[in-house]
Structures are given as C-alpha cells and as structure tokens.
Amino acid sequence: MSTTTLAGLPPAPAGDSGWAVETHGLTKRFGENIAVNDVELLVPRGCAFGYLGPNGAGKTTLIRVLLGLTHADAGTMSLLGHAVPRHRDLALARVGAIVDEPRFHGHLTGRQNLQILAAAREPAAKGRIEPALERVGILHRANDKVSKYSMGMRQRLGVAACLLGDPQLLILDEPMNGLDPAGMLEMRDMILSLVAEGRTVVLSSHLLDEVERTCDAVAIVDRGTVIRQGPISQLLAGSSFEVQVECSDPAGAGGVLRATPFGTHLEVGPDGLAISLPEGTGRDAIAEINRLLVEGGFSVYRLQHIQASLEQWFLEVTRRLGEAE
Amino acid sequence: MTTITDTGPAPTPIPAETRSDHRGSWIPTWGMVTTRFMELRRRRGLMIALIAVNIGIPVVFLGVRLITHAVDPKSYGPAGGYEIFTTLVLGFMYIFGFIVAAVVGCTAGSVDLTEGMFRHLVITGRSRLALYFARIPAGLAIVIAMVAVGYTIVCAVCVFAAPAQLNYDGVNVPVGLSRPALDSWAADHADEVLCNFNFNVTGSAAPPPSVPCGNGQTSGPPPGSTIETPKGQVVVPDTTPTQGQIRAYAVTMANQDYADYSTNFLVPPTSLMVDVGLWITLEATIGFIVGLGLGSLVGQRTVPVILLVVLELILTPLFSRHVISHLVNLERGIVGVAMLHIEPGNLPTPFSGGGPGGGGGGGLGRLLLIPESTLTSSLVIVVWIVFWTAVGAWRMMTRDA
Question: What is the model's pTM?
C-alpha cells in the first residue's frame, strides 16, 4: 500500500462535492484481466490533473468507466459531486470528454457533427457551436466534411465537442495525439486557459513532458493500479536528484568523494563531477559535498542542483515497482 | 492501493447542479430527431438507393411507357392503368421498398457505433433509450416520404395515363359493366367474344360455334370435326350457326368470365390505391424497424442487410406457399407471410409473377398462401415491430461504448 499526500492542492474529504472526480475501490475486469484495480482517485476542482501511465496501464478504461461507457465491477465514483451511474445524466451534463481517438461522421461537416451532439445536450448547447469551433481554431474549416480533416483537426473538433456543454470538468484522453508541435503548444495553451476559467481538466497521457508542462497534479497508474498521486512539485521534491560540480582537478576530487557515501553514484568528467543522490536526500547533502571538496583543497567553481524530470521520476517509480515484484 | 492522507482543510463545497434538463428521459427531443434526420439524409449512397427504388425506377419505367405510347400508340399501350399499377407496386415497390427501408434501418442502427459517434453521444449524459428512439421518427420520415412520393407518382400516371378501354383477353371492353350490361355488350360483339374470351366447356355446354376470326382462324372446332366433350365424342355440325346462336353463346361466355372481368379495372379505384399505399408503407416501416433493431443488435450493417434480403427474397416466398407440416406455425410467424395475408383485396399477390394475368390473380393468389387468420397476421406484425424495437433498445442500453 502506498501513501501520498495532496497538500498544496485544494483538497476535500471523501464524499464532499469539492472533488471533480472521486473514486473509491473502483475495479473493472475483462475476464481474468483486471484493467482498473481498486482505484482510489481524488481530483480537485479547478486544476489540470494528469493521469499518467504506460500503454495498457488502464488509463482509458478508467475514463470509460467514469463516463458510463462501460460498467464498473466494484467500487463507487462521482463526477462533480454526482454519484455515477445513479445520477449519470446530472453528472455528465457538465462534463466534456474525448476518449481514445476522436471519430465523427465522416460524411458530415464539423459543424453538422457538433449540431448532432448539441441536440443531445441542453438547448443552450446549440449556441455554443460557433464559439467552440472558433476557440479550437477550426471555424474556417467547419463546413468541410470531417472525412477531409487531418488527425489533428479531428482532435480539435473533439475538444470543440467537449466545450458544447460548458463543462466544469473536461476529461481528455491523449489529446496531443496527432498534433504537430505548434498544435501541441496551442492545445497546451488552451488547456491552461480552460483551467484559468475555473474548469477542471483531467489529462490522460503517456507524454510525460507535456503533462509536466500542463498539469498541476498527477496520478501514476500502472497495471490498473494508481501507484502515486499528488502535486507534481511535491512528488518530484521527494525524488532523487543530481548535483553537478565544476571544480579543479576533477579526478582528484572524485577520489576524495569516493571514500564517502557520495561516491556510490559518482561520475567524473573532464570539467567536473556528476553525483546522483537518492530519493529523500536533503539539501544539506549539497553543502556537505562542498565542504568535503574545499577541505580537500579543491577549488569549487559551481555547484548545481538538477531536479529529476517527471519522466525520470516516472521511470524510477515504475522501475522500482517492477523490481519489487 | 493508494490512500490519501493529510487532505488538509476541506474546500468550500461547490453546490452540485441539481436542476435536471430531462436528459435522463427516454423521450428524444425534437432537435435530436431533426439532427438524426439530417445525418441519414446526407448519406449520399443510401439516398440514391432509396430514390432509385422508390422513385427513380418507377419513374423511368413509366416515362419510357409514356414516351413510346406517345410516339406509336398503336404498337405501345398506355403508360398507366390497373395492370401497370399492380405490376409496379406488387412486383417492385413492395419487395424492394422493404429491402431499401431495411438498409436505412440497419444504417441508422449501426453507424453511430461503427463511425465512433456513439461514444460522444453517450458522454452527453442523454438517455441511451432517447438516443435510440430518436432514430425511429427520423428514419421513418425519410423512408415514408420516399415511398409516398414514388407511390404518388405511380398512382398519378396510372390514373391519368390509363387506357381509354379495358383490354380484356385481347378485346377492348368497357370498364365497370354490370353482369347484364356485359351480357348485352357481349351479344353486340359476339364474334370478338367467341374469338378471344377464355371459355371452359362445361358438361352441359355445346362446343362454341365456329366464326371466322381472321387470318384463316375460326373460333371453336371446325365444322364436321369430332371433339371430346364430357358427354363423349361429338361431331361438330357442318352448318353455319345462326346469328342468334352466336349471340347466345357469346352471352354464355361473358357470363362465365364475369367474375374475372369484374376484378379488372381500367384505373385502380381510389379506395384500393389508399389501401395499397398504406400497405406498402407498413411494409417499408416494418423493414426499417426490423433493420434498426437488427443493426443495433449486431453493431454493423452488412450482415443484417444480408439477413433481411434473404428473409424478403427467399424465405418469405418459400414459406408463404409451401406448408411444412411441422413448421407451419413458424412459417405463420414470418412477417412477410403475415403481410401477404393482409394485402388489400383483389390484387395479385407479390412473388406470384405480378399482374392480374400473371397467375395468382385476385383471390386465387391468396388461396395459395399457407392458411392464417387476419387476427394472427396482425398479431405477427405487431410482435415483429415491438420485438425488434425492444431488442435494439436493449442492446443500445447495455452496449459498451
């Protein structure tokens, strides 16, 4: 059992409607395969939340269960404070979602596809079609058939479909798929602007770099189980990091440090040293390295703390999990 | 399992939106129906098939007849009339109208799934039942409109371009005569009647008198010849029949043919056109509803379309006429068989060659059907509609999106 904290984010006790998404013991099986395994997930409102995991980890399945696209085998869940599936209609009234690759009727235009979806929502949704198309940047192609759209344009149309319901919660499954770098940048900006409007965005992705740039908090899922969740800054703060040292006589300095606990993960280069410090190491370790080198008679020109990226942290966490098993 | 600790102070609870917009209701909104209508209407291939079967082919058929009759009226008969009406409606529109309606139904029942829109629609929170039921009025609006337009054109041509006289057994006969009036007409046109009308020599009747029919042909056996009759061999008298004998015999023949004559109409009667219109509309409606349910159940279009074509073109003709003693109730349960039993009166049955002269004319065709009461037929039709609607809706409710 792993324990994480959500301090730093607007939390809420279980059962309160303060959570945008709340699940308890959520489980979904496909025969012998457990795609979603006893998931406890709390997504605060008004933030961008990353749901990370390797391919086949169960990200999309969890989203499908949340949205009522398939039933759960066990557990409870709520969206925007409404229990699902009991009050599914109320819950989904203010939810927009893209699940998997967004697909539409190819023989219809983008606008006509949105008209179909708006008709299934409240009457006001019809009036949101034009603004939604404009916001995602495909208003000029709205009268083209979707069969002529690129993958990236269909992604944008999918986001426009999400916006028809003026959603408080958006669940986007791999929204960067098919987007070129400029499109990814625009998508990132749009997600941030949606969050700035007070909406909650849950972003499922395996593009860790994008998630790190976009999200405030993340949950890591592996083989159907949420193994970590919390604010990115907090999760990374407790992870391993590297100290780069630029000094005189790197070889000699390395020899001094090898006799200490810092020598375990030490690399000596022509310009200095690279020292990897394990998870949980405090900032005092950096001062200690400096002290040892200065007392050894070496000139220290630069000491730099290199924080592990989300990607490094993710790989570290999932690797450790694999080793433990 | 992951647990959350140190959740800190509770956030201000955000009041949940509790005002329902009835999206959980099973009744579709008008907007859902109209957009679904739009989605189907813009399927070019489907619409071409619908228009071709219900409008295009009848229009081309009638158009060619109108033109050829206008160019050479002696060689080509009028475009309209009762015979053309029955040929087109029963031989073509009834059968292929069902198949095309079934294709529309299968399309409406499966394309959301195959084209990835089902997921988007479910995410709106709208009741899945409402999503399903929106397809029924939308699809029927298209199917029935097409049937109505095509059928109206056929009726109009058959009425306004009908022949001036009824051609009965190759003789132009006034239409709508009573039995005495037909007798009187036959007496006045005795030679034509003797030469052309069908006549079954009964036990009490003498062979028809011989009159010249042109091209060296005569009516009846030549004088002096010997013929077999139910009374035995009879020698045809070598005397010229009197005009009175010829007239009397023509009246006898007209009397015998009156029942068949009375089923022939110059133009299809209004009541019959209304009845047949409703009947082929019901057939198309059944095709659509069954296709919709089957398409929803299977989740794709091709297999259900093949199954329904087999039902309409193979199973229905087969089971409507061949009684399999152990399966007779199953045969009665086929909706196509039930539809044949409620066919408007005085029409030849479909699958019998079409047209009054094509065998199975009038009540005769129905006599060949496996026996089934009108009540049973009606129940079978209702059960098919309700069952396939329920199956399609159930699958829609339970399907993973």
Answer: 0.78
